[in-house]
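thread: overnight batch results

M.L. [08:02]
morning all. the overnight job finished for the chain we discussed friday. pasting input first so we're all looking at the same thing
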Amino acid sequence: MSLSLGVHIGQQNMSMDGLRALWRKLDGAGVDWLSAWDHFYEAPPKNGTEPHFEALATLGALAAETRHARIGCLVFYIGYRNPALLAKAATTLDHISGGRFELGLGAGWHIWEATAYGYPFPDIGTRLDMLEEGVQIIRQMLLEERTDFNGRHFQVVDASCLPRPVQRRLPIWIGGTGEKRTLRIAAAHADGWNAAYLSPGEFSRLNQVLDHWCEEERRDPGDIKRAINLMFNLGVDRADVERQRLRIAEDWRVLRGRIPEGALLCTPDRAVERLGEYVAAGAREINIALRAPWNEEALDAYLTEVMPRVRAL
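M.L. [08:03]
and the structure it wrote out:
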């Protein structure tokens, strides 16, 4: 299986024209994947003080603006939209993109924006129950002519989803790192699993947990793609790397001790080795996560120097 190198872009602190130009640049540079995230407020949280675009509308523009990269959202919080609506939206985005859309789903974490916008944010067990129901509804609607589902949280009655997606099987990703529920839901229902900001060692350990759940679910582990998102903090030199380290500490505060473990926090000459550690840990898709502002020179170095060398691993 070839290695996929993508970019996960937070649609914050940028104009829509700026986002469109960035998508075109990345698509033209040959990245394999482009994604947005599903937030109303900025991440890390700053109480809604930074400009931020909504995910579904943003993805429509991303689908229309690009030609080559697969596109998606990592990940939609299941509590913000009815699963049947998400199935319909995914189909629409698949048509806009010409069959390049992939749907990511998760149990959510950004309680501050949910509260601000009036969405219930129940305990994690309930949110995982919602995720498990939602992924089943979406899968059926994307594959079957009619769907009936009577769950505790979601119901659909004789629902159709026409037109069909362009892809015969539109891929569904489950995002998250919960060992008991999230990874088992991924093993049972997903085409891919995505984790964010983990060290190579922790990614490897959770990758093995997912393999275990695949065995429990009688699923071939090879059927599930494995992806890691890494914070993009590439520096052009050591001094720039230290500035990036200070920025992580300032932005993430209580998580500042963990985030650097899952960041591309190095110079370009070290980046190839760093990404190779994730490949050795089982990652077959690696996405750098961009939060504006970033060092444009460092991004160009990643696209023109790092990516070709990593592809040759």
